[in-house]
Design a protein that fits this description.
- One of its GO terms (cellular component) is membrane.
- Its main location: membrane.
- One of its GO terms (molecular function) is chloride transmembrane transporter activity.
- The chain is mostly helical.
- It contains 18 helices and 2 strands.
- The chain folds into 2 domains: 2-200, Clc chloride channel (Orthogonal Bundle); 218-403, Clc chloride channel.
- Helix 8 packs antiparallel against helix 9 and helix 11 (218-252) packs across helix 15.
């Protein structure tokens, strides 16, 4: 492990300067692309909400278009995030540029017609695809992996405008148990540039600074442990269910067109009758309700979990992170009175802890807690996230995430 740490700092000062400049350039480009993608996605969400009865019935048709696009133009890009991880690990060398329009258009279609999906996977793929174009400009060992991680960080930070979380998400998500410090310098410059530039261009950021500071007593500490267990279990269920649905769908409906058409039709009906599209789209409506006086039902988190895992398992496009935020926050609202803790505090802890469990990340969720909800409750967030993270049985929404073997001597 010490050798890995040493190796990660072998860049010369001159190379570090060039990497910093490239990081700024990547941040500017990715921030602009994130803004276009994100603002159109928000507009699509508004259109869907206003015309849901006319759009939701065509979810299956949108799915057929998505499958046709990938079959016709992007067979080598169908792995999506898997391809990004392969390049980050050095197992593949090329991220085709056509991944950009394919993943963006297919995600817009998924959301326009009511699919329950997120957006971070798209932003990370956009960032990695763009940054990978710079690999010919710099010649040094592992340059391809460095640039991919830099783009992943910029994509996450530009979309959510959480630069520290974006930085550590990219550094830790590729390999479980190891920070990819070789990409630290360009990623640092890229995340702050992308975050500030997307904000300057008008992309909205969700933040809700909590109006309280929770003291960590022995009683509160024990409650944090229990909350961490429950949130961690929820993240595990999300990953397991998504994998189960995907396997069953492929086993019983081998043709991708039939698969997305039939299950897409079922999803349309189910989403319509489940509170008239309450669980369609990103889940930001549930997040907003969790931090306001709006109604949260005891089953909101479960239905959002079911709809999202099924939507993504059958071939619709998008990410998982925003739905994970919604699942965790709405579950936190239900658990808060049981534990005798402030509702907004537990909702915030759920927001980040379910994400931590499902993605096998530790530092990024804690920093999201600080950047979105305020750093005054970082100890509370850290305890719940640590337990959620430790509960994970080395499974993740990112199937090609690798784990570092640890020698127990």
């Amino acid at each position: 492990m010490m050798k890995n740490i040493k190796d990660s700092y072998q860049h010369s000062y001159g190379l570090c300067l060039r990497l910093a400049l490239v990081g700024v350039l990547i941040g500017l480009i990715v921030g602009a692309v994130d803004t276009i993608f994100g603002r159109v996605l928000l507009l699509i969400g508004d259109v869907r909400s206003a015309h849901l009865p006319y759009l939701l019935p065509f979810l299956a048709l949108a799915g057929l278009v998505i499958v046709a696009l990938y079959q016709r133009f992007g067979k080598d890009t169908q792995k999506g995030m898997g391809l990004i991880f392969e390049v980050a690990h050095g197992d593949s060398e090329v991220i085709p540029l056509r991944l950009l329009p394919l993943v963006v258009v297919s995600t817009w279609l998924t959301h326009l017609f009511g699919g329950s999906a997120g957006r971070e996977g798209v932003a990370v793929q956009l960032g990695a695809t763009i940054s990978h174009r710079f690999r010919h400009c710099l010649s040094f060992p592992n340059s391809s992996q460095v640039l991919v991680v830099t783009g992943m960080a910029a994509g996450f930070a530009g979309l959510f405008q959480t630069p520290l979380a974006g930085l550590f998400f990219a550094l830790e998500v590729v390999t479980l148990g190891q920070l990819n410090l070789y990409a630290l310098v360009p990623s640092l410059f890229a995340v702050y540039t992308a975050s500030r530039f997307s904000h300057f261009l008008g992309l909205e950021k969700f933040s809700h600074v909590l109006p309280l500071t929770q003291t960590i007593t022995v009683e509160v500490f024990l409650k944090c442990l229990l909350l961490g267990l429950l949130f961690g279990l929820t993240g595990n269920v999300f990953v397991s269910l998504q994998s189960f649905f995907k396997k069953q769908a492929i086993d019983y409906l081998k043709n991708p067109y039939w698969r997305i058409a039939l299950i897409g039709g079922v999803l349309s009906l189910a989403l319509f009758f489940a509170h008239f599209g309450r669980y369609a789209g990103l889940g930001t409506n549930l997040i907003e309700a969790s931090f306001s006086t709006h109604q949260i039902y005891s089953y909101d988190f479960l239905l959002k979990l079911l709809f999202t895992t099924l939507t993504l398992a059958v071939g619709f496009q998008g990410g998982e992170v925003t739905p994970l935020f919604a699942i965790g926050a709405s579950l936190g609202v239900i658990l808060a009175p049981v534990f005798g803790l402030p509702i907004e505090l537990v909702a915030a802890a759920g927001y980040i802890s379910v994400f931590a469990s499902a993605t096998n990340t530790l530092l990024a969720p804690i920093l999201i807690g600080g950047e979105v909800f305020g750093f005054q409750n970082l100890p509370f967030f850290a305890i719940t996230v640590i337990i959620s993270y430790m509960l994970n049985r080395r499974q993740s929404i990112y199937g090609l995430q690798k784990a570092v073997a640890v020698d127990a001597e």
